[in-house]
Amino acid sequence: MNSSIGTAKSALNAATIRQANTAHSLANINTPPFRPRQLDQVESVPAGTRIAGAKQGGARDVINDTAELILNRYAYISNTGTVKVQHKMIGELLDIIA
After folding, report:
1. pTM, 2 dp
2. 43 is in which domain, residue-wise?
3. N or C, which end of the chain is more exposed by having fewer CB within 10 Å?
4. What domain count does the chain have?
5. pLDDT value of position 2
6. 56: how many CB neighbours lie within 10 A of its CB?
7. pLDDT digits over 23-76, tens only?
8. Distance CA 79, CA 91 (A)
9. What's the rounded Cα separation, in Å, for the pair 86 and 92?
């Protein structure tokens, strides 16, 4: 697999996990015993990123969760753009070879 596509895929996977975690926190923000999880995102070798673990977080608020949703949106946009460009480049390369 092309390394840039692999890097984008790992970032999309991490963004998906972060998005689900934020949605879970928002859905339970008014549940008394609920404590949201904080995710640890780390670099993955040889390239990319992954969620390494989660720990119990402190109090969350809607402003921080909304900011996380916006950051995830831009993570999706930038990484799907990377995949689209790579797909186009590979197609053009095959056209040149053929």
Report:
1. 0.76
2. 3-97
3. C
4. 1
5. 66
6. 8
7. 988 888 888 888 888 888 888 777 778 788 777 777 667 888 889 899 999 999
8. 19
9. 10
